[in-house]
Design goal:
alpha+beta; Hypothetical Protein Tm1070, Chain: A; five-stranded antiparallel sheet; about 25% helix; about 35% strand; globular
């Protein structure tokens, strides 16, 4: 399965966020701080609402993890933008029985196997 090869990197990144939350994003490979551009396999997190834009050359796949719970995988077509309300997604996950809190952040992982880069805008 494709997802298995991403589980270990995702777990390592989550561990980095847990122990070094302010520094983890800055030291993660594949994250351009000025544009917050995620190359395939890279990840970032947002503590508020966020927007994901597919700036690559093909459709992109992103996985959203809320707290420690994988919540969704979504295909974002080339050139498309999707906006997400973090509280709404956390509330929906809670209703689905996921172990999340309204204080959790969203962890976003670019699962695209090719050259689709994602630009992530996190609201402050």
């Amino acid at each position: 399965m494709k997802i298995k090869k991403y589980l270990l990197p995702a777990a390592l990144v989550l561990a980095a966020f847990a122990f070094f939350p302010g520094e983890a994003q800055a030291s993660m490979p594949g994250v351009d701080q000025e544009e917050n551009l995620l190359v395939p396999g890279a990840a970032t997190f947002c503590s508020h609402n966020f927007t994901i834009e597919n700036k690559g050359k093909s459709d992109a796949e992103v996985q959203m993890i809320l707290g420690n719970e994988p919540v969704s995988r979504e295909n974002i077509p080339l050139g498309q933008t999707r906006s997400y309300d973090l509280k709404e997604n956390l509330s929906r996950a809670m209703l689905q029985g996921k172990k999340v809190s309204l204080k959790d952040s969203a962890f976003l992982l670019n699962l695209t196997p090719n050259s689709s880069n994602l630009r992530v805008y996190c609201e402050e």
